[in-house]
Amino acid sequence: xxxxxxxxxxxxxxxxxxxxxxxxxxxxxxxxxxxxxxxxxxxxxxxxxxxxxxxxxxxxxxxxxxxxxxxxxxxxxxxxxxxxxxxxxxxxxxxxxxxxxxxxxxxxxxxxxxxxxxxxxxxxxxxxxxxxxxxxxxxxxxxxxxxxxxxxxxxxxxxxxxxxxxxxxxxxxxxxxxxxxxxxxxxxxxxxxxxxxxxxxxxxxxxxxxxxxxxxxxxxxxxxxxxxxxxxxxxxxxxxxxxxxxxxxxxxxxxxxxxxxxxxxxxxxxxxxxxxxxxxxxxxxxxxxxxxxxxxxxxxxxxxxxxxxxxxxxxxxxxxxxxxxxxxxxxxxxxxxxxxxxxxxxxxxxxxxxxxxxxxxxxxxxxxxxxxxxxxxxxxxxxxxxxxxxxxxxxxxxxxxxxxxxxxxxxxxxxxxxxxxxxxxxxxxxxxxxxxxxxxxxx
Length: 443
Ligand SMILES: *Cc1c(COP(=O)(O)O)cnc(C)c1O
Hints:
This protein is an alpha/beta fold. The chain folds into two domains: 40-71 and 305-438, Lyase, Ornithine Decarboxylase, Chain A, domain 1 (Beta Barrel); 100-299, TIM Barrel. The protein has helices spanning 3-16, 42-53, 73-86, 102-111, 120-128, 145-154, 164-173, 205-215, 234-252, 272-286, 301-304, 339-342, and strands at 68-72, 90-95, 114-117, 136-138, 158-161, 178-182, 218-223, 260-262, 294-297, 308-321, 324-329, 350-354, 357-358, 366-367, 371-372, 375-376, 379-384, 393-400, 409-412, 434-438. Strands 1, 10, 11, 12, 13, 14, 17, 18, 19 and 20 form a ten-stranded mixed β-sheet that branches. Strands 2-3-4-5-6-7-8-9 form an eight-stranded parallel barrel. It is elongated. Bound molecules: pyridoxal-5'-phosphate (PLP). Pfam families: Orn_Arg_deC_N (PF02784), Orn_DAP_Arg_deC (PF00278). GO terms for molecular function: ornithine decarboxylase activity.
């Protein structure tokens, strides 16, 4: 497959969210989620192949067969183009926590994307790249006082809040902050809910507005986050509508006009066609072009997920029956697949290398079901991580064409969001993972 094919695939998925040839993951509630998109092309395959062929498992040093990522920086650029095609009015602030990979951050900064940081060290990391503090939003509504003082010293002005105590801290340590009031949203359909932890209920907005007024603070706008993996986007519409209510309410309180709306994160490539359409409509209805209000967002996964492919080695196997095995690989929930626990992701295992052959382009090498599109998958497997914890399970049930053995390789496409950023050294397994970079941009 060539580079051109990649672009075509990208366009066609975008055009109508065409069913991907790969998999259709059904959630336990049997709601079919959008089929995962992946980019697959020769440059990724070349990097995977070269690395794997360099490992001689008969004689290699401990760790030479460790799992590794291939990152296509070009994908980040394509995603950026795609974002502005769908949401031309919305300036993205990339949520650094999603994947703080230095080369991804560099690329985003060069493309003109700004940054959402949640802690001192994330702010530090972005400033060290030479990014202007004006391009950072400290989007954590509950900050340590020492971190607020740090932000003040670093001249990071934009920040969010959702409670009165935070306003008193800000008054004391960073009074010239440009503040965004974070409202709660209805995230009941989201896979990762955030409004249980953050956001002011609409009924309590007046209390915060009064406090802003009493303290003489600088309220510039409203922010929200509808959660990640939402299956319907009415929450996005409602949140924009509620934001409008807060803008109007601030006026009634006699506060200066608000001029910034932050529509948060949670955007996924696979559902972006739908979410961006809902958002565009809501913005045009409640914050029309000529209203003079700047719109920003805090996408994380959108810019990182599909740029990374993870390859992992089969280190052990327990055969249960001729057609049933437990496979143990050298990465798992304590490593780069913590997204299974923390982010409710279901990584898709596919056969990369078996018996001396590569199967990268066999999009049907595995299946979540024993029979799919008429094909019967003979091998039933469960896949486990390397630590001694029973929780360290990648999938309890998957089906494979091949009967994999130790030494074979599996890969997981689109695994760039909330993966390496939260890996731990638990049980003595290194958390530093190699990333092989390729760049298919501007070719
Ligand atoms: C995590 C987070 C984001 C990014 O969410 P995604 O689902 O990765 O887009 C954005 N804003 C805030 C405040 C967050 O906590």
